[in-house]
Design a protein that fits this description.
Layout (H helix, E strand, L loop, with lengths): L6 H22 L4 H19 L19 E7 L6 H11 L4 E4 L1 H6 L1 H9 L3 E4 L12 H19 L7 E2 L10 H7 L3 E2 L4 E2 L8 H11 L5 E5 L11 H16 L3 E2 L2 H5 L3
Helix pairs in contact: 1-2, 3-9, 5-6, 6-7, 8-9
Bound molecules: zinc ion (ZN).
Zinc ion (ZN) binds next to loops.
Length: 265
């Protein structure tokens, strides 16, 4: 498998594609103004579709649940990692079920934690194998990332333990991402609100931002590990979690898995 493309180089390459599109548009502006407008509009739309995770142009995504039911979903990306058992301890204490978008690479390191997720009723969903950015990858690469992760989860926790939801690393998608996911049998997922817990602003800030975001249908994005530093903890998120669950209870919001929120099962 080709080495993962990291976030910085992927964004730089996308930027150069954008610069190329602006140059192409400018070169047409005098002789063929309509072509210039079409090129500029297509480039702008592709940019929004790539970097705005809920945008439907590169395929529809589950990014919010129904707003007429008092339910919301906690989702955790990039794990399992050193803080995941602490996250699971809090969820068990609060009697809350959540969704974990796991990386296959991390599943291979922490198979017992994945077994625990499944045993405690959480949903294990797919975040790709190595967190590589998929914007410039073809459908076969996307499919390989998903299948490899699925194999890791099945090795760890047994067959049939994986949800058919896929969240792309950083939510960045290219024109082939949805097709690759579809061919592997996956539906794309994004989120309603991220609280930037990976910037480690402190547990109180993570809890306050999460409490402000929680409403019927909200899919909250949190992190139980680091997509680029496999051994790095996410202790602040684990420490904020009790407060987040209490905030949901105070609003009479039931916290459920994404499949339950979306009515898949
Ligand atoms: Zn991630």
């Amino acid at each position: 498998m080709t080495p993962p493309m990291r976030k910085g180089p992927a964004v730089h390459r996308a930027m150069w594609v954008g610069v190329g599109a602006v140059a192409a548009s400018a070169s047409q502006a005098r002789r063929r103004p309509a072509a210039a407008v079409v090129i500029a509009a297509a480039a702008g739309l592709a940019g929004v579709a790539t970097f705005r995770p809920r945008n439907p142009v590169f395929g529809r995504c589950l990014w919010r649940g129904p707003r007429d039911r008092p339910r919301a979903a906690l989702t955790f990306d990039d794990g399992p990692g050193p803080s995941t058992d602490d996250v699971l301890d809090v969820l068990a204490g609060e009697d809350v079920r959540a969704t974990f978008f796991v990386l296959g690479r991390q599943v291979d390191r922490y198979p017992a934690t994945v077994r625990r997720m499944v045993a405690e009723g959480h949903q294990v969903a797919n975040h790709g194998y190595d967190h590589g950015i998929l914007i410039f990858r073809g459908p076969r690469h996307v499919r390989d990332q998903l299948r490899r992760t699925e194999e890791s989860v099945h090795r760890a926790a047994g067959p049939g333990t994986m949800s058919r939801l896929f969240r792309a690393p950083h939510g960045f998608r290219g024109p082939a991402t949805a097709a690759g996911a579809r061919s592997a049998g996956y539906r794309m997922a994004a989120w309603t609100t991220g609280v930037f817990d990976s910037a480690e602003p402190g547990p109180a800030t993570i809890a306050r931002r999460s409490a402000e975001a929680l409403a019927p249908g909200t899919i909250l994005l949190l992190h139980d590990a680091d997509g680029w530093a496999p051994g790095r903890p996410r202790q602040q998120t684990a420490d904020a979690l009790g407060e987040i669950c209490r905030a949901a209870r105070e609003r009479d919001l039931e916290l459920v898995t994404l499949d339950a929120l979306a009515g898949v099962r």
